[in-house]
Amino acid sequence: MILTSLPSRQPPAWQRALQEAVTDPAELLALLDLGPQWLEPARAAARRFPLKVPRGFVARMRRGDPDDPLLRQVLPLAAELDAVPGYVTDPVGDLAAKAGPGLLHKYEGRALLVTTGACAIHCRYCFRRHFPYDDENASREGFGPALDAIRADSSLGEVILSGGDPLTLNDRRLAALFEGLGAIRHVRRIRLHTRLPIVLPERIDPAFLDMWSAVSLQKVVVVHANHAREIDGSVRAAIAGLRESGTTVLNQAVLLRGINDRVTDLVDLSEALFAAGVLPYYLHLLDRVAGAAHFDRPAATAQRLVADLATHLPGYLVPRLVREEAGAPAKTVLPPASR
Question: How many CA atoms lie within 13 A of 118 on its CB side?
């Protein structure tokens, strides 16, 4: 008798792409034809906060250009090792806002669920680069205790899924979480904060969209693009799928020195986002996390940029300039500079 084995079930394309992300500074530099002078600083900084970037995102970078705005978001630099006064490990007061296992309650009517510590990309300016995910991660408890805490607080109408990145969880785990949230009578809205539709658009595949479309709650996805060149055809297709599923799609950007701190950069970003079906929502001042001081821009500079931006774009394409402050009841909105 001839025995034939059943074909092994292959993981979806997005999981394979995630597994194949570039994690070695030497490989990243080789892919981009950059010289050896970048290698040792990158290795030193990556020992403190590892490098991780999907190959599809690397493919959007300009070869031979160390100042490429996409590369600068992910390339570890020696400046990350500098201790700068005022830049701390918990810049937005996450740990003081703990309301349950992996559950943060900062603002009235909303709670944030730290779903996972995993990301598809390690942005060097990440405000949670020092976050203790091993201890403060709702998925470690199977989400049950966090859902119980949300169920017990009838003031919560919106649950924000963050991380890490919630879309690094597989569809089975996400579906269980969505079902659990949908069964809580006072929860009306679910909001996903995710970078994956931008850096790993393969994640928004038919299986995910079928599952996400079935969610009965109001659905908001906040993506994170900082530069117009992050948005290519694959990203536009992912956004289109989200919109067709009945999702409001917004963007949060961070103002970053040498990456998007010119008016032309911000104009191009807003136009590219809107052409893809995304509404510019917030432009964040840098959260002052240790290791990222070299990205920071003064508030006054940011306010002048937003004032200039308003002269080039209609109001609905001008993101609100905000800063998150630990313990504040809401994000602080900074007005544009007076002209």
Answer: 13
- For residue 90, being part of any structural domain is answered with no
pLDDT, tens digit (0-9, with 9 covering 90-100), for 190-239: 999 999 999 999 999 999 999 999 999 999 999 999 999 999 999 999 99
H or E stretch including 272? helix 263-275
Q: What is the per-residue pLDDT across 151-168, written as a single tens digit (0 to 9) for each?
A: 999 999 999 999 999 999
Q: How many domains does the chain have?
A: 2
- Given a cut of 50, whether residue 5 has pLDDT beyond it is no
Of the candidates 274, 209, 275, which has an alpha carbon nearest to the alpha carbon of residue 246? 209
Extended beta strands in 170-255, E state = 189-193, 218-223, 247-254
* Range of lowest pLDDT (2-16, 80-94, 309-323): 2-16
Per-residue pLDDT for 31 more than 60?
A: yes
With beta carbons less than 8 A apart as the criterion, state whether 284 and 322 touch: yes
Please indicate, yes or no, whether residues 64 and 112 belong to a single structural domain of this protein.
no
> Which of 32, 51, 81 corresponds to the end of one domain?
81
What is the bridge-based pairing of β-strands 320-323 and 189-193?
unpaired
Confirm whether 272 is domain-assigned. Answer: yes
Q: Are residues 186 and 150 in the same domain?
A: yes
> What is the CATH classification number for the domain harbouring 243?
3.20.20.70
Provide the domain limits for residue 169: 95-333
- pLDDT confidence of residue 136: 83
Q: Is it the case that residue 1 has pLDDT exceeding 50?
A: no
Round to whole Å and give the CA distance between 260 and 228.
Answer: 9
On whether both 293 and 172 belong to a single domain, the answer is: yes
The full DSSP string for 126-194 is -TTTT--TTTS-GGGGTTHHHHHHHHT-TT--EEEEESS-GGGS-HHHHHHHHHHHHTSTT--EEEEE-
For the chain, give the percent of residues with pLDDT over 70.
97
**Which residue type occupies 154?**
S
Instruction: Decide if 4 is inside a domain.
Output: no
Let me know the angle formed at the C-alpha of 114 by 182 and 172, rounded to the nearest 5 degrees.
50
The three-state DSSP-derived secondary structure of 72-104 is HHCCCCHHHHCCCCCCECCCCCCHHHEEECCEE
